[in-house]
Design goal:
Helix content: over 70%
Number of domains: 2
Strand order of the largest sheet: 1-2
Order of helices and strands: HHHHEHHHHHHHHEHEEHHHHHHHHHHH
Strand content: under 5%
Radius of gyration: 24 Å
Distance between the termini: 30 Å
Amino acid sequence: MTAPYVRTARRLVVVPVAFVAVFTVWPALATLRRGFDVTAVLTDDGLRATVWFTTWQAALSTLVTLAIGLPATWVLARHDFTGRRVVRALTLVPFVLPTLVVGLAFRALLPGDLSRGALPLVVAHVFLNVAVVVRIVGARWESQPVTYDEAASTLGAGPVARATTVTWPLVRGSIAAAAGLVFMYCFSTYGAARVLAGPTRPVVETEIYRFAVLAGDMRAASALAVAQIVIVAAVLALTSRGASFHSLPGRPLKLRTLRRPHRIAVVTGACAIFVVFAVPLVGLAVRSLTVGDRWSTAAWRGAFNGNSRTLDIVPAVVSSVSTAATASVLALGVGYIIALVQVYARSRGAAFLATACEVIPVVVSAVVVGLGFILAFRNEPFDWRGAWWLLPVAHAVVALPLVSRGVASSMRQIPDDLRGAAATLGASPARVFTTIDLALLRQPIGAATTLAALVSLGEFGASSLLSRRGNETLTMTIGRLLGRPGDVVQAQAFVVAVVLGLLCLCLVGFVDLATAEERR
């Protein structure tokens, strides 16, 4: 019954290929060919220092994230206790929040001397990416049957021996995959780095923007873009194995069945996770109510006052929501086709093209995409400068890999026997698709669409180049306010960050509520 899917997948592969070629490959080439100098990173001391700092802070952030994320994963993946879902959801909050908002949260929380530089940037990266470890490694760890540990314990293996001989072989592939993604996110950082690193500690993304837009030095911008693509692609290639696996039946351990020291460790870990992930978010809200050295609601009153000279937040919210809605629909349409080709196409060539369409947007950063849009689409017949849809398309490019990967993993789990039974009962291919595929993929499609919308809401790299006055998004509003003097204006930046964070959390909560109602 997969024959119609195979034919459709082979025919539709041209859609993602055309989309990625026009809106990712062509803009990237347009950026790189402007003063292309691959040796500049090796010969220029300033560029070499930027790449080195970005690399070592990303590596350090990855190591610290694993050091904190693996114990948190052990608590959440292997144990069942009251409030487990709340604690688990709290670890995922930073990942769905815009990096700019998280950067502002740590800027508000840390003292003045420690609010800029490498240390706060690493701390923010760890806070942002622990969720990656919890989700990727946790999914593998949860599938480890308890009987494995019980059998090893019966044979006399202690806790250390069980961890090294039973658990480690099962989770090491997922740990490597999580480490690669964390490194990629930390190396391609923009929003958090712009707020926390400052001009004295620039990273590759912020320097690409500065050289290309502010300094007009395309040679340096292109050299940094090449270095970023090469390093990120190499790391992802080395760590991608183990990202997928066959799930095994497993169950978490009930807290009451554990020995007292074990219970104390789990409860302490859960409380620590709750505190660590809640405090920065509370600090962000507190800072929005602080003007200078005193408590005040002036920033909140001014934000929703249409007569304010610095901020009218309602148009920014409308712009962000409309852009996110357009970007999520576009990313879902193209991402679904990529997943369809990866799962059902029997042609190696088609599968390779679909995988390339998923990988290329990962290694090409959002800043390079935004800059490439400006350079590639400014001449006839493709003079699209100022077009309203360029920003949603750029956001869709950034979200595309996340959407296609999520849909493909769920698509592979649909039993073909269901389609065969439906066809035997006389259902047409179209009826099979609507009653089986769409019904079973409803929740994954909803989750993928939500994730694409969240990516769009928090995207700052491409937005900083493509957003214009009149369609200014919330992230651009924050960046503009932070660049202006005045205590009230600075507090208003934190007000917008709180609104943006609440918007993201409401979107996630709405989808979770809809999913819970559907399960009932």
